Amino acid sequence: ILEVSVTTNTPVPQMQLHTIFTELHIQVCAKAPAQEQYSSQNLAEIVHCFIALGEAPASGELMKFFLSQHGDGARAIAWGPLALIRAVVSADEPRMNIRTIYLAIRVVKNTLSDTRFKVRMAILRIIGQLALSGYQDRIKGWGLKYVSVQLTLSTYKLTNHREGFNQRELEEKMVHKVTMDTVKIITSSVSGITDEFWVRLLCYIMETEYTEALAPICISLTNLAERQLHAKDAEASVASKGRHGPHWRLGALQVLMSSPYKGEGRGIAMLNLLRTLSQSIAPSMADMWELEIPLLVKYLEEHTEFTWNQKTWEDKLIQFLRNSLKKTRGSNWSLRLSKELNNQIESFDSPSLEKGFLYRALGFTLATGLEADKVEMLLLELLYKTDYGNDFDREGVVLCFGLCARGQVKTVLNVLRDFEERIQESELSWQIGAWRKDHPWRRETVKSALMVMYSCVASYCHPQMLLTHVDSPITAKIIHHYSSSCQDVCLKMAFMKSVVQVANAIKNIKDLEDFQFAQKMTLTGIIMATIKAEPTDSLVSPVRTMAMEALSHLSNLKPFYSTEENNELMDISIRSVISLQPPAEDNESIQTLYANAKHALEQLMESLMQRQLDPKGLQEMVHLLEKWILSEKEGEREKAMSLHLHLMHIYVQSVGVRIPLKLGQFGTLVGLIAPCTCDSHRRTRLASMGVLSSLLDLHASQTCSSWGPSKELERAKCKEDLQGLDVEKIFSASSRIAKVACVQFNCDEVVSLMQKLCENIGAMDLQHDKASVTWIVTFLQMRAKELEDKVAEILGAILAQLPVVDHREARRPLIEGILLLAHYHQETVLTALLRQPLPMESHLTEVWLAVAENVPFARTMLRGLMGRLQSSFTPRAHATSKADIWRQAAVDPLMTLCTIHLLVQKTAVDDKLLELFPDLTYALLLQLRWGASGSLQLLFGRLSNEQLVQSLEEQNVWALLQGSSTFLQGVGLLARLCMRSMEGYRQRLLELVLRGMDSDILSCRVSSTAVCVEVRLGFMSDPALYQEELLKPTVSMLEKGADQEDEALRVLSLRALGNMALGAPKKVRRYRKLLLEKCLDSLREPMNTSVASEGMEALAKILAELREGDLGPSFGTICEQCRAFFDNESELLRFKAFVLFGKLAKVVRISKKHFFKEEVKKAWIPLMLHCQDPCSDAAEACMATMFQCVHFWGWKALESSWGRRDSSTADEMTVFQTTLCSILTQKKPAVLYSFLLETMTYVHSNLSRIRIAACNLAGTIMKQMSAHRLRKLDFPALRNSLQELQLDSDPGVRRAALETLKILDTCSQHPLLASPGGFC
């Protein structure tokens, strides 16, 4: 109907309009009754109705109706009419008169104060529709202002809403969206827009925190600016107007562009705006911007917020800024830009990308400033207004100062000095926060900031300027601020960061030449003290990590650390990290700290190693790690091994084959790592396998050897087995690794490996000890035969560690290894075992017990031990090998005896072992002086010969052997009993005795000769002695023995030679000359009683087997030597001499009878006197000899007188003497006279009984002498001699002398002597 009305130009009656308006209005009012609301179905039709009414002449009435509805206070339904008004305004109806638009705007203005979101959106849409419909002039005032207010209001509400999604936020977003659409419409359609709206939009870019709005606003401003620039009055365009100048615009847009993808991609929009405003900002930059900005736009278009790189983008912006400022060189443009940037700092929140870039841009622009004093003012202002408690702002200022130092280093240092001086007073009074009431400064915070500022200055300033200022003031100030603070965690971190930056700055200088960083050692000392102060069992801050990083960087600067300093740094750093406990899996922050600390330690060790990339440096590094690799704590071992693996890789990659390892170093390194292949921790096992692989590969490359495919495959399988948990498989894999590695070792490396493996036994747990032993045994099994020259060193290492091996599982394989060495190198092993300080310690006893368990091997070892005992009695041969040296090495016989004793005691007896009996007996016999009697007694006890054992006990042989004075007697007795009871061993014993007699060792010759002395069942009586032509060497050795200086040896040799007459009488005549000569030689030394005695006894035995003619000239010599001993002070010599003279009497036959008769006359007085010898044996022997010699007088009467035995010996001797004197008086008075004179010489004998006998014999002779012979006597002299005896201490001498004196007096008074003419 309404359309027809409009079409036919038939207006609706005036009276019906109000009713129609009211009914239609109800349909779109939100507060209408529910039954009357049909707007959901009929809204579009209702709108058409209102449009039709608005086009009609009644349009004015329609607006009046809307005005009346709102004027009636129907505010709740204001959005409905507004929606209808917008629809009416949007109708493209030329008949719409200005009056209608005016009334419509009036209606809208009446609702501007309504804050409901629907009303606000409706108003904004109407404003936009008015602009689109060509009524731009109608909205320039109130409309633009309303849009600006809504833009600000909605942005504020969106940026300050409460957390969580709610209805109001959604409504506000709808309002903001409509506002932005309206702005877009206005800026694209309105010409001659007001300056105020332009300024509001431009300020909005800087002031808003709602980033979604920036891109649309920028686009709108760009469009507006482009339209204005194309206008006729370009110079008067709004683009060049506003309260903010070009420096502000460039700075603001540049900072906001640092986050280009915020707010629907504002970066591109701002770049386009900047390009559009280039003429109004800086005409000198316009051409450059035309080229540069499209490139920046292209970069953003090619990326998204997920693919772009923040630093790359910021670098592009900075480069853009640099190029821009170059166009204004010579002006104060950069300084004014710096000021604007400085002013904008507080406009951004912290932290934010925009503010971070702002600090960077500010630093760069200040660096290009020409007026240093103004730059100083800006920097100083920045220092004072910075909140140092805010990490972001503090770091931003630090960066700003660093960048500024690139072109203004002196200015920056002056500002920092000035700032320090200004705050010094407050620092001392603890009022640093006096300038900042809103953000009080903490003392440590400011100091940490200053330290980092100085280091940042070092990082960015020109290299030549850095070398001038790095020691002082830069580093000196850093040290000062750190040392003068409380050194909390933050300050320590700042200090470490500063050191790293300074060190990096110096390092990055290309032409350092000989620059020496003077403050290096001071910094190092502070860092080391910091690391030491960190707890070793917990990790609560990254201080130690940063400290190690600082040391890593300092290590590359001159002066370089010495080797000792390097090692100290490594040691301190390792201690700081190695004991840290691994963090729990749910504590990610501590896990990060833990991982960083380990990585920093690796980097530090790597840096320090760079100065010592040689075998010595490698060894030093391993030495530092060794105590931790051998730690009892699983975690410490794992970290140490991982570090070792890392450094080993570095070493191999850096050195390779250029520098070969030192001799023995390879074995030492492998020996340290090998036991860890059986570690309880899987990562430790795998790391150790990695280290071993690196070492083996390194060694193979340096020795030009290669791994075959099979060995590589075996290594891979071993590594796989080490990852499991099966202990048996792990040990099997370790053993297989040892077999694979063994072929790579030369003998010297094997020794060093063994020494290291042994050294570390007991350092950890049983599992590691078993692994060490496994490697030792494996290598010995494969290489023992080749190690002849190295056995002593290997055995020394094993024996040194064996006492500390507590577990049998590890100790027993070691002992088996020793036995394996002994199997191939018995002499060397014997020497090493016997030369131990205490060879019978429990661990060595266990070794010998293991030997005893294997009877054949024990027999072999016993032979070796006996050889050691016997070798000491034989000449030492020239050593031709190292084994000979060890075989001939001196060992303590006592230790050898103890070992033999143990083996004899513990080894099972069998026939083969009994074959050693003669050798054992002889060997022990020669060692009796070392206390071997107990071992010898044990040996005889194990023979199962009870008769022999009993005989030895009954005859007290063992006691005799233990006495020094009865030793030789015991030896002879033992030999005699052995020969009686053990006939089967005579031949072997004889060979051993003969060998001993030829020894260079006196004691051996003495003992062997003592055995040889035995006569009855002894060696000399054995037919084998001469049947096998052993007599000649035996006699020869006895001959030598008789010529020796040693008394015992001479005595025994003479005795043995004498016993030859008993044991081999048929051979005496053959060797008579030698026998007689040696015996006579012994008689020529009367001062040596035992030798002379033995010589006479031997002569007595020999004479029994010789005939008169066999003696030759020796007969007279024997007689003479024999008579010389008749009056010897030694009873033994007198006895032996009398016996020997008797033997001579028996030998005499016809040819020597006359000679011996004269000898008898010479010996007669001593013989008669010594029949009264105080020694009964000598007296008896003397009487026996006299009896043998009586017949040489040739007087039967004398023989018959001696033969009477019916009276006492004294009476018999008196009768014999009387008879002899009587016969001599008659037949040989001269002989009797000489006898008297000889007898008188004995009155001065040392023996009292001889003096008595001499007195008695002199009396008897004087009684029988003729007067003629008495006259020749010197009676005064005789009397004086006899009178002197009256003073003798022995009463018997005095009595005998008195009786003889009486006889002398009687003879002197003989009548014939008194007559002068007596007979002659």
How would you describe the overall organization of this protein?
It comes from Ursus americanus (American black bear). Residues 636-862 form the Maestro-like HEAT-repeats domain. InterPro entries: ARM-like (IPR011989), ARM-type_fold (IPR016024), HEAT_Maestro (IPR055406), HEAT_MROH2B-like (IPR055408), Maestro-like_HEAT (IPR048465), Maestro_heat-like_prot (IPR045206). Keywords: Repeat. This is Maestro heat like repeat family member 2A. With 1320 residues, the protein is an all-alpha fold. Helices cover 71% and strands 0% of the residues. The chain is built from 68 helices and no strands. Helix 49 packs across helix 50 (1002-1012) and helix 57 packs antiparallel against helix 58. The longest helix has 38 residues, at 391-428. The model is unreliable at 34-40, 71-77, 232-243, 429-439, 1015-1019, 1204-1208 and 1315-1320 (pLDDT under 50).
Short description:
The chain is mostly helical and 1320 residues long. 71% of the residues lie in helices and 0% in strands.
Overall shape: it is: rod-shaped
Mean of pLDDT: 78
> Compute the gyration radius: what is it?
66 Å
Give a short account of the largest sheet.
Answer: none
Number of helices: 68
Spatial gap, N to C terminus: 227 Å
Structural class: mainly alpha
Please provide the count of β strands. Answer: 0
Q: How much helix, percentage-wise, in residues?
A: over 70%
Weakly predicted, low-confidence segments: 34-40, 71-77, 232-243, 429-439, 1015-1019, 1204-1208, 1315-1320
Residue fraction in strands: under 5%
